[in-house]
Amino acid sequence: MIFSELYSAYYNAVAAVLTEAVSGPVDYDRVRAIAEKYAFGESFVSIPSALKEEKWQLLKPDRTSVTENIPSMPMTALQKRWVKAILSDPRIRLFGDFDPDLSDVEPLFTSDDYLVFDRYLDGDDYSDEDYIRNFRLILDAIKNKYPLELDAENRSGSIITRVVFPEYLEYSEKDDKFRLIASGNRLGNTINLSRIIRCEPYKKPIDGLCESKHQARPRSVIFELSDRRSALERVLLHFAHFQKEAEKIGDDRYKVTVHYDKDDETEVLIRILSFGPMVKVTAPTHFVELVKERLKNQKSCEH
């Protein structure tokens, strides 16, 4: 593991002890308190003992630090390579401007090292400065709980102004798009970030606006799956972020139940259809009808 609370707990605890010991003597009751805060399990016993008995020669007999400076914990080469790989993702700029000096290492991996398939090609433009600004403002509004006024383009191309209470951001791996889930507006709770043209904090009185939380509309779909060409593994991967159950009902057949929100129904439908004849939707009836209607529409496009 590259970054691990388990393997860094001792280092964090001892670094905290030395940080205090640089300024003056630190008693062992304080050492135990620090160890209990930063470490876990038997560590709050073993760390003070190792320091007191000088198994770790880091404290002088007068209980001050053997170092003159506060300890630092620089990243290892492997950690630097991992960070550099993460920073190469264009989506990282949505969360802030990061410019660490990592010129001495190569990224641990690049986009050429993995293959993304079955993803739409019209994903959001994460390099667009207006998109980045809107994303950061929305994220701040979610954290600090204040309303926003948005100008967003609807499906017909019209610009609609609305005031909403941002609740959370949702990412669709298949669409490669972010969506804002909000409440407080009758025009809908889900807004694609790429359709937002203007986004500003709303500072006027909010009387009459509904501040109730986004109401989840849970749905479920049940389908039978023939496990050919690793279909089961691919289904579990496709629906990794949905709650689901899989039950074996035959030698190579499984019954899969996927739970989702009503707002995600179209995406769930498209994902299921992508498996073709290896999947047969059995319930509920309205989802079966959605499958039939979608297939009819696709067939009509062939003529």
Description:
A hairpin with a 4-residue loop joins strand 7 and strand 8. Helices cover 32% and strands 21% of the residues. It is of the alpha+beta class. Helix 1 packs antiparallel against helix 2 and helix 2 runs antiparallel to helix 3. The protein is extended. It is built from eight helices and nine strands.
Helices and strands, in N-to-C order? HHHHHEEEEEEHEEHEH
Structure summary, number of beta strands:
9
Shape: extended
Strand content: 15-25%
Helix content: 25-40%
**What structural class should be given to the helix and strand makeup?**
alpha+beta
Unreliable stretches, pLDDT < 50, 5 or more residues?
A: none
Radius of gyration, in Å, reads: 27 Å
Largest beta sheet: what is the strand line-up? 4-3-2-1-5
First and last CA, distance: 54 Å
Mean pLDDT: 85
Structure annotation, total helices: 8
Largest sheet: 5 strands, antiparallel
Question: Helices, strands, pairings?
Answer:
Elements: H1 5-21, H2 28-38, H3 43-52, H4 77-87, H5 129-144, E1 148-153, E2 159-172, E3 177-183, E4 190-192, E5 196-201, E6 218-226, H6 231-238, E7 243-248, E8 253-261, H7 265-273, E9 279-283, H8 285-300
Antiparallel strand pairs: 1-2, 1-5, 2-3, 3-4, 6-8, 6-9, 7-8
Helix pairs in contact: 1-2, 2-3
Short description:
The protein has eight helices and nine strands. It is an alpha+beta fold and 303 residues long. A hairpin with a 4-residue loop joins strand 7 (243-248) and strand 8 (253-261).
